[in-house]
Amino acid sequence: MNLQNHQTFVLIGIPAMQEKNSWVAFPLFVLYALTLLGNIMILYVIKTDQSLHEPMYFFLCMLACSDLALCMSTMPTMLGVYWFDSGEIPFNACISQMFFIHALQAIESGILVAMAFDRLIAIRDPLRYKSLLPNSVIAKIGIAILSRGSCVCFPFPFLIKRLPFCRSNVLSHSYCLHQDAMKLACADTRVNIIYGLIIVMCTVMLDVLIILVSYILILKTVLSIASRKECLKALNTCVAHISAILIFYIPMIGISVAHRYGKHLSPIVHMLMANIFVAVPPLLNPIVYSVKTQQIRQRICNILQLKKRYSGTSG
């Protein structure tokens, strides 16, 4: 079979147990709805509350937008697979989805770096925090992050499209990934592998290194603060960001390691890791920031109380 006589890839749900896909469908739909609700709530709260119009919250808006885009580019396909057993995806649609997933991952990694810089400036130079990060600078940082993510992943669709596919067209996940599709090619994929490694080194590894250096400087600054109370207060402002870093990078590293070295693992493990990779970070980020950021938590509580009062009055 070659590319001329198959123009589709086939996505799968639970490996070798497709009849049990419906078990995953409803929890996945609930997760999808909660992810949309959580991130839209974060955006609404920050937009409507003037006191939250600060650099930290603008970067949080970028993170929420990135999570929403990732959710909307993967979840409909995943729900189609699990709920309707609709696994076929056109070749061009698959490589488009592949581009968006990888680009959005690179964008989110860049946003986490920007948020690390934001925390560094806020703790090291709090008096000049807003003047060092005016709206114009934040907008330029956002454009730079978006441009980097789009540019580094732009070659992926072309690298896949040039390959002949004469083997099975069945992918191992419920969405399209570059490393997954690449395995089905019946040609030399060294260019794809090398480019993929270059992208990992230039984005993820570099970003992790910058974040690590930022937190070493933050820790150095915090430890120099005489008051233990002030020291803990400064560290507390970083808890949500540290949680977001762990939520994002651990699944990403896990699925990369599984693809390269986990051939002996059960297909169920690969399926779970793949679903966690795209579904869990967009769900947990708004929860973490709502719980750990007092201003956002209070604003959400106020909104819920107003709705409760309104429903009570109308009742």
Automatic annotation (TrEMBL):
Domain of life: Eukaryota
GO cellular component: plasma membrane
A UniProt-annotated Pfam family: 7tm_4
Transmembrane intervals: 23-45, 57-83, 95-117, 137-160, 193-218, 239-262, 268-289
Keywords: G-protein coupled receptor, Membrane, Olfaction, Receptor, Sensory transduction, Transducer, Transmembrane, Transmembrane helix
Stored InterPro entries: GPCR_Rhodpsn, GPCR_Rhodpsn_7TM, Olfact_rcpt, OR51/52/56-like
Database matches in PROSITE patterns: G_PROTEIN_RECEP_F1_2
CDD domains for this protein: 7tmA_OR51-like
Subcellular location, record wording: Membrane
Main location: membrane
Protein name as catalogued: G-protein coupled receptors family 1 profile domain-containing protein
Protein's organism: Podarcis muralis (Wall lizard)
